[in-house]
Amino acid sequence: MAGYTGKAPTTDPRTGFCEANSTFYSKRKPVPLPANQSLDVTTFISSRAHSGRIAFIEAATGRQLTFSDVWRAVDAVSTFLFEDYGIRKGHVVLLLTPNSIYFPIVCLAVMSLGAVITTTNPLNTSREIAKQIADSKPVLAFTIPQLVAKIAGSNLRVVILGPSASQSSPDSGNLRVVASIEEMMRREPSPTRVKERVGQDDTATLLYSSGTTGASKGVVSSHRNLIAMVQTVVNRFRLDEENSTFICTVPMFHIYGLVAFATGILASGSTVVILSKFELDEMLAAIQKYSATHLPLVPPILVALVNNYETIRKRYDLSSLQSVLSGGAPLSKEVIEGFVEKFPKVTILQGYGLTESTGIGASTDSLEESRRYGTAGLLSPSMEAKIVDPETGAALPVNRTGELWLRGPCIMKGYFSNEEATASTLDSDGWLRTGDLCYIDEDGFVFVVDRLKELIKYKGYQVPPAELEALLLTHPEIADAAVIPFPDKDVGQFPMAYVVRKAGSTVTQSGIMDFIAKQVAPYKRIRRVAFADSIPKNQSGKILRKDLIKLAVSKL
């Protein structure tokens, strides 16, 4: 990574800030990175010593894979891909599936060859998936029989994730279903196969950013990015020291799931229990059945645990649980304290990261840190940050709000086949412009104020939607809320709120507008309210503002 040295100059030990270059440096111990540059992430993970035995458990069937099963399968699948399908370094392979016990096997096998894995959301439409295929140009796809129809127009060779290739859909169109994953896993690895040399700087993954503020773009991450991420995850939880069992409900196709399960947790020797989709009762039953210790989740699930506590307590034994790991959006004081009150033995940890930073950025690593309410945590190990004034480009000191820039070993190589987007996001010194408005406080904690691109411009004033949403959620009759910019020819934009009322509430539009008006400057007032049954959010828990903006504008 250009510009990144991993060495911090003289910094304030409390803030991590260096006045000489206006840069914040992580206060956490740096992650060790392997010196061998000719190293792929699969080899790196498989060569790590650990004491774990069971790697993956499929919750629906109880099927288990030991670590030796996993590495035998990875070796067999990579041999099959290399010898039978000619998959080589630089080729792109598409993976379209819900969470599955096969997911990490495919990822690790593909990356071991120096080929590139690209994942997509199973809920995406055929049109959305076709767009990604046209952009990334995969040479092979892995999918389940139920999703074959979604890639029917692509003329791709397909491997079925399941026991038999004959399970293919009648809607398979031009596709050639060539094998099943189980057939590939039975292949005897070739002792004579010569692997191509894969280096840390080579591309490993091509994940598409969520596109909450614009078109989705392909994020190119290197083997070095993933190795640094694995080291960060393993060191953060000190998982080598204990037998840990994680529940996997977060989507594996997303950077959060890939970080937590397909690579990071595997490297620690922990056991991962995989649920194909999130369903609250199934998740709770799996925690009880497998004595799970760690539960990565997104904020809406954590809220559901708090709200349904009495029912949960009567039906499930969650005494094995040691920590919940929340990502996607900051947790409020009410949610944190509500959870601590009901689950006093479970530590809440939070994290902040982007697809562009391989899921790494900042984290809280203890309940004490999480109780600095609203924080995303301290900068992750080996991470550097700047807070930059969006108007002047000047780097700002402690407790000043600006755009968060990040630099470190987890920062992406760039956007796939999109030099313009790369140049506007990554500078020549390796700084990633996150698009998040943040400040870093006097103890080095990062606070995310809002998305820079989502700021509402009212008469030239900048209004952060998240600030108004936080106020709305303090109203006793409001269950959920989202604030968007509403176009207006006189003022440019003004804040509009979508509100979900609590059951039995009679709160009115004017009542909500008055509630906010008493608490904010005149330019921040909400000037339009619509009531909704729910607020649309992506699987990370982020509000899909662009969907609400489209809805609001359609009614003009």
From TrEMBL:
<feature type="transmembrane region" description="Helical">
    <location>
        <begin position="253"/>
        <end position="275"/>
    </location>
</feature>
<dbReference type="Pfam" id="PF00501">
    <property type="entry name" value="AMP-binding"/>
</dbReference>
<protein>
    <submittedName>
        <fullName>OPC-8:0 CoA ligase1 isoform 1</fullName>
    </submittedName>
</protein>
<dbReference type="GO" id="GO:0009698">
    <property type="term" value="P:phenylpropanoid metabolic process"/>
</dbReference>
<dbReference type="GO" id="GO:0005777">
    <property type="term" value="C:peroxisome"/>
</dbReference>
<dbReference type="InterPro" id="IPR020845">
    <property type="entry name" value="AMP-binding_CS"/>
</dbReference>
<keyword id="KW-1133">Transmembrane helix</keyword>
<dbReference type="InterPro" id="IPR045851">
    <property type="entry name" value="AMP-bd_C_sf"/>
</dbReference>
<dbReference type="InterPro" id="IPR025110">
    <property type="entry name" value="AMP-bd_C"/>
</dbReference>
<dbReference type="InterPro" id="IPR042099">
    <property type="entry name" value="ANL_N_sf"/>
</dbReference>
<feature type="domain" description="AMP-dependent synthetase/ligase">
    <location>
        <begin position="48"/>
        <end position="416"/>
    </location>
</feature>
<keyword id="KW-0472">Membrane</keyword>
<keyword id="KW-0812">Transmembrane</keyword>
<feature type="domain" description="AMP-binding enzyme C-terminal">
    <location>
        <begin position="467"/>
        <end position="542"/>
    </location>
</feature>
<keyword id="KW-0067">ATP-binding</keyword>
<dbReference type="GO" id="GO:0050563">
    <property type="term" value="F:trans-feruloyl-CoA synthase activity"/>
</dbReference>
<dbReference type="Pfam" id="PF13193">
    <property type="entry name" value="AMP-binding_C"/>
</dbReference>
<dbReference type="GO" id="GO:0106286">
    <property type="term" value="F:(E)-caffeate-CoA ligase activity"/>
</dbReference>
<comment type="similarity">
    <text>Belongs to the ATP-dependent AMP-binding enzyme family.</text>
</comment>
<dbReference type="InterPro" id="IPR000873">
    <property type="entry name" value="AMP-dep_synth/lig_dom"/>
</dbReference>
<keyword id="KW-0547">Nucleotide-binding</keyword>
<comment type="pathway">
    <text>Phytoalexin biosynthesis; 3,4',5-trihydroxystilbene biosynthesis; 3,4',5-trihydroxystilbene from trans-4-coumarate: step 1/2.</text>
</comment>
<dbReference type="GO" id="GO:0005524">
    <property type="term" value="F:ATP binding"/>
</dbReference>
<keyword id="KW-0587">Phenylpropanoid metabolism</keyword>
<keyword id="KW-0436">Ligase</keyword>
